[in-house]
Structures are given as structure tokens and as C-alpha cells.
Records
---
Amino acid sequence: MGDDRNRILDLLASGRISTEEATRLLDALDAKAGKNDGDEEAAATAKTGWPKFFASGDKDDTKTDADAKSDKAGSGAAPKYMYVKVVSQKGDNVNVKIPLGLLKAGIKLTALIPKPATEQINKAMAEKGMDFDINNLRPQDLEELVEAMREMEIEVDSNNGDTVRVYAA
Amino acid sequence: MSMPPYWLSFRVVEQGRTKFRLWLPLFLLWLLLLPLLLIALALTLIADLLSILACKKPGFTRFLLGVLNTINAVKGTEVHVQDKSSKNQGVAFTLR
């Protein structure tokens, strides 16, 4: 997969393909490895240049409960991305994909926060009513946390038909 | 350690047509920043050595590597915003 990606970048650098074509090819590669993102969505992205989410912008683009469950059951690997999808009735949609590696890297960085600073953070959080010790965020527990996120799904449906979905896959 | 993002793409679509597209080859930026990174790495190693000599816990190099790891971890971030109600406009931001 890495070779294919490098070959596309080489072709782009040598001017044999345009940036537009390179985007399509890279998207097609992503679609091929689309187990993490959902094959259908990645394939739609490769075809149109936009994720399926935006292909029509309709509410139907979000996966149904059954789809989401079958995706999760089918993939035994730990989730790699966190998705936030906001679909409004008027068509104002937001789709955010965040690598969970960022969470891991961030938590690893917290281990390097000096002790006086962590004490201040804990104190500030306690004042806000959050009884949480930042020192308990240990990189060792990350894998378990990320694995547990596979089961997590937040879905909010508002009265006016707007929906918000947060899940990891 | 994973690789940092190679490309940053920013795209604005209006009425179904791409109005503005920006491709930033980040790999060129990383190449330009490599000498600075090597200097920073040397300085953090010296600082860690001084910390050890002063009987303090060394953490400067670990911090630098942690920051690099965080930069690498942003690869794959995608943000798409679609505003159909007023301007029928869409914005896509991708780090690959």
C-alpha cells in the first residue's frame, strides 16, 4: 500500500499526472483499504472526490443502527478514527474524522506535564465539579480505552430532525 | 514512529463546483524544518545531560519526541463542512 502511494506521489512530482488525478488515485487507494472508514463511504469518496456524506447531503447518508452494529461486529481490530457527524434538516452538515492516534499521542504528552502544573489542573477541574486526577491518565491504559471506544456511540436526534452522531471505527 | 502528514488540502465547493483548491506539499516543509529539528534535538540532549548532572529527571528530549509524535498523529484528519441552507457551499480540509 505504501509503495502504491509513493508511486502516485512520484508520478505527481514528475508531472505525469495532475493533482486532481493524484487525489482520485489516493482516494481510490483509501477506498481499497477502506475497512476502517467503511468501504462504501471510501468508494464514494474515490468516485466523486467528496465523501458520500456530502454526495447528497441527505439524512439517509448516515449509517443505520444495523449497519453500524454489523460494521463493529465485522471488524475485530481496534478503532483508528473517531467520527463526528452532524446532519441538519436544512442541509448544513459537518463531518469530522479524527485519528485516535492523536488521543494516544496527547495522553502520552500529559505524562510530561510537570507536577506543579498537574496539581493546578486537578485543582481547576475539582473546582468545576470534576473529580478527576490527570495523573491517572497512563499510556499503558490507552489500548484498553481505545478498544472500549469501539463500543461507544453517541447519537442525538433533535426535534427539528437534526442528528449528531459520535462514534469510533 | 509513524510518518508526518505529506499533504494538506483545502477545498471550497460552491454550487457543486470547486471554487478554490489549495494543496500544500507538507513533505517539503518537513524537509526544510529538518535542520531545525536536528538542532533542537541536539539542544534537548544537552539539556537532558545537564539535568542528569544536576540530579533532575530528564524530559526535554522525550517532550520533543512527544510533540513530533503528536504532529504525526494528525495524519488522516478530515473536516468537511457543508452549508446548503444559505450559500450551497462546502469546505473540505484534509491532512494526508
---
Amino acid sequence: MRGLTKLESTLIILLIIVAIVGGYGWLLAQQKPTSIETPEQTTPPTTEETTPPTEEITPQPKQVIQNITFVDSAGRYITVKWPLKRVVALSTDAAEVILTLGAEDVVVGVTEYITRKPELSKLTDRTLVGTCFKPNIEAIISTNPEVVITYVRWPSQEALEEKLEPLGIKVIRLDFYKISTLFNEVRLLGLLLNKTEEADRFVEFWKGILDEIQARVKKIPAEERVKVYIEGYKDYKAAGPGSGWDDDLRIAGGINIFADSPVAYPKVSPEAVIERNPDVIIKAVSTSVFQPYKATDPSPLKEIIQAIVSRPGWDQISAVQNGRVYVISGVLSSGPRAVVGICYIAKWLYPQVFADINPEDIHKQYLETFLGVEYSGIWAYPT
Amino acid sequence: MTGKYRITTRKIFILLLLIFLIPIFLLTSISIGFYKTSLYDIFSVVQHKICGFLGLNNNGQINSRLAAIVWDIRLPRALMALIAGVGLAIAGTTLQGVLRNPLVSPFTIGISSGASFGAALAIVLGIGITGFSVYMVVINAFVFSLIAVSLTLGIARIKGLSQESIILSGIAVMYLFSALVTFLQYIAHEHDLKTLVYWIMGDLAFSNWKRVSIVSPIVIICLVLFKFAWDLNVLAMGDEVAKSSGTEPGTVRLICTVLASLITASIVCMTGPIGFIGLVSPHIARLIIGSDYRYSMFCSALIGALILIAADTAARVITAPTELPVGVLTAFLGVPLFLHLLLRSRREVWR
């Protein structure tokens, strides 16, 4: 009898599992598949460009579909139909650049971080295809894109290209987060989307500001350069070489006190900061701690500064003694808006040199003319 | 005699039932996902593909996107879950048998941390054993998991391959490689860190036909291990008894451990270390079918496959379009089943 009971219980459990899994499957099977049809094959491509593109491509009559071949930031030759009509953006930076180019209509799929950014709210109704680091391939395919745009390194090729390329979906890898490659990448994307004028406007706007800052920084003599401690989201996680903040700081003419770190985000000891005695302390705040857009109350940022100032022994640091402790939103560290972050930093480091530069105005101008959203919120403190 | 006969019949009945469940689970897994598909769609795609493969006349057009999702994305993934579940469960059963320890899993002898270290090298530093970038993670993980196991067995050999020496040296090697992984995590770029963490939690999303075909030969190794089921039964009675009945414990232990490691390394390098299956499937099998390895090994393989297919399906569906790590789901599905069986059972499985 005992054996029978055991057998029964086993059977019951297995049947329950089957019932749950199977029932769910049956329910799904009952629903008619949502009609996402493969689009009719349009007229076959008539011309084909095999050389890397030049900017002279002139828009052709609408019926003609051209192919265009270019090199992405991962160094690969890619051929796509020109101009791009259906794009899945995996990275927030790519999504933001597409918006600034006025091409939001081509975006058919976005990832979770994009929908969480209120400045990119024009894209929240697009199909969600997972996160940038763990995209859902089925969801990507279901949006029927021509291309997927993502970072050079993330997600891995085995997670993306290996699955999508057999289906004819091209993966374009453009970073958009490094200031050194940003402008070329924006120009390339502008070309692919047939938005070259918008891309030029974008590049001119930022490059003008960036050149001005660099020209003024160049004139600051070495002995007047300011020593800076930049801290990432976690306490005592400094921004070392290779991090976005370090790049920003270098352009703004600051000396990173942890420039000798072998690691991008080293965990430093509080003593080392006291010993290296920075003139300015800058703390990056993540959007999960403080959502800058539409924020009106700066008190959470005040508390963060208070916590840094009251770290044991830090009253010995000259930045603390002189009240030069600042917080800035991580949104401004890299990506299309890195120049805004650089403006803030430059102004904090050399208030006299950059007295006439107003980071808030620049940011406002960018949000309103390029992204087409209202400027509001608190992006840095104190300003 | 009749009593024994009845018990054997019962065991075969359970095995048949489990075998019957496999296609049901597979079909369910293939039918569910972000892209809505009906059972009819599944059958039409499969029929279309098989007809095409055999060169028969295909009548009727088929939605190419539907075909891609069912045939190129879901089917290889479900098959990978099947193979990985079978392989991990058999490796676990074998190792628990040869090492006579219920807490052993394929990961106890250092495989998962070795594989994680190899993957971390590729992901964080871009260092590969080979230059070929797409499979860098896979090849690194495979090579380093074998390095870890060789290290474990090499150390254990000095002490004559006793079960304690294998377990203890395995734990030492595991901690060594875990420390190395932690170090790489420390120096990693935050985006790489995310990729690495996903990998370490185990993930079947990388499955495709090529990978399935690379992994499928491990089924043959599994069949070889079935041959050792009787040796495991003898070994369960102790080294002395085993010796007197003609089984050399050291040799069996070495061969079985090496084969189990090969199976696990081949799976883990493709999927990342999916926990729990290799540890608990053998126990579940023992609880429902008894501790005779000739039956429990087969049963454990089926249980492992069922749990992993179900877990992967759940991982894909619960938070769609994002995915949960499959390792979390294997535990969520497996632990209640395991605890139930454990509490219901009046048998002392590990004497």
C-alpha cells in the first residue's frame, strides 16, 4: 500500500505541473496569433553601393530602394537599405540620438532603460524588447526591424548577431557614449536615416561649446589646475581612467586624484582621499536615487552632500573646508549630453574662466530644440 | 517473486510516464513566448521544415518570421534545455554515487567556478584561448572548467582518489577560481559586469542549432555512464565490499568523475552554470524510484530534463519581454517538488 501512496503522490505532483504548464500553453494556443505579417517584398534594390558612403548621396525618388554600405564602430562592413525605416534601439544613448535627429518614427522597438527615461517619453509606446544587456530576441523579431542599434561591446555577438543575422536583421554597433567617437557616429546615423542636416546641426551645436571649453582650458597654466575627486554611484567608488567621468574631467581641465588607478572604478580608501587632498569633490548620482527630470526639491541632493562632508576625517580636505563639494546626475556623464556635464565641471573647477557659460541654458536649449521636450528639473547641485 | 516483479513493473511504469511527459513539456515550451503562436502554427512550421529538409513538396506558404521564431529560436532552446537537463542530472547522479555524498553536485568539483573564470576572462578582459570572438566565451569556459577539474583530480590523486580527497580538493579549487572571478568582477566595466553576472546565473538564451549539435554528443557519454550503474550500486556498499566483488573503487571513481566532468563542462560552457539540477534531480529520482542506480540514473535524467524545460519556459514567460535567470526558476520549481517527496518519504535514502 505504501508504494501505491507514494506513486499516487508522485503522479499527482507531476500532473499538477503538467496541468499548469500545459493549461497555460493551451490558453495561449487558443488566442489567435496577433497578425504581424511579413511585409510584402517591395521593389528589389536597383542600385548598390559597395564603397563606404560619402556624404554626397542624394535622396532618390521614393520608389527606388538603394542599398548603402558603411563601417560601424565595431569595424564591420554593413549593407542596409537606405534610408532606414524600421529600427530597434537597444541603448538609451542611441535612442536619444535618434530623437535628436527627429527620426522617432523609425523606432519600432526600445528597451527598459529607454522607457524609464522621462526625457525620451516619445518612445514609451514602442514595443519593449527586454533590456539592453538581455534583449528578448523574439520580441525584436516581432517588431520586424531592418536593423538593431546597440553598443560596440554589449550585448555580446552570441546574444545578438548570431540570432538575428540569419533572419536578415542587421546589427549596427555604435557607442554614442564616448565623446571621442560621438560626433562621427551621429553623422553616420544621420546619413543612414537621411537626416544629415539634423546631424550636422547636432554636431555643430555640441562641437562649438566643446571647442570653446577646450580653448579656454588650454590657457589655464599647469600650476593653477585643480585636483578633483570624482565619486561614482557607490560610496568610495572613484571614477578612474577609462570611466566616462574621467574623460569629462580631462576635457574640463581637472586633475583626477586617482588618475593612477589601474581600474576604471576603483574602490578607494577614505584615507587616500584625505591624503591626496582634492580641491573639488564631485559625486555622481544615479537616476534610481534621484530622478533629475521634473525634480523641484533639491533636499535629497543636499543630504548627499551633507553625508560626504561629514565623513570621518574629511573636514581636513580642502574641498570640504572651502565648500566645493558638488553633486551631478549620472545622466550627464556620457552620451549625447556629456558636454553639459563637462560644462558643469569646468565651471565648478574654474568659476572665473567660465563665468559666462551657463550649463543650464545649454541643457535647456538642447532639450527644447533637439529633444523637443520641456526643460525642467535639477541636474546638478549647488549651481 | 511476485512482489519483486510488481516493484519492477512499477519502476518501469514511472519511467514510461516521465518519458511520455518529455514531448508534452517540449511542445508546451515551444508554444509559449512573447510572439503568440498556436499549436497549429507550431505543427505547420515543423511540418514545413521537415518536408523542406527531406526535399518533399511543400504546399502552402509559411510566415517566415513565425518559422524563424519557432524553428531557429524556440526549438533549439528547448532541445538545449532537454540535453542540459539530462546531462547535468546524470553527472550529478554519477558524482553523488562515486563520492557517496548527497551534497555533491557537478559543481562541487570546481567545474562551475572554472567555467565562470574562463567566461569572465573573455567577457571582462577580452582574453581568449582562441582569437575567434563569438565563441571565445564558450571555448574559454570549456577549457577552464576542464583545467579546474584536472586540478581537483590531480590533487586528489596524491591522496589515492578517496572520496574525501576529491570533495575537499574540489572545494579548494572552487574557492580559488571563485576568488579569481571576484577579482575580475572588481576590475570589470559596469556593463561587462552585467553581462558576466547574467552568464554566471545560467542562461539558455544563447542556444541555436549549431550549439545544440555541438552539445548533443554528450548524450553518448551519458549512455556510457549508464554502463557504470551497477558499479555505483556496488560502490554504495563501501570501498571494501566493492573491492571484494571485483570493482576497483579508485578506477571507477576516476573514470566516472572524468566522464561526468566532460558532460558538465560541455553543457556549462554553452549555458553558464545552471544550478540545482545536478544536485537535486538525483535525490528526486531516488525518492520516487529507489536507490538502484540502474533505474535512478535514467529517472534522474528525465527529472532533470523536465525541471529544466519547465524552468526555462517559466523564465521566458513570467516577466516577458525581459527574462529571469533560469537558475532561479530551477530552484523555484524543483524545491517544492523535492521537499514534498522528502517529507512524504519514509525511506532512509542515505544510510
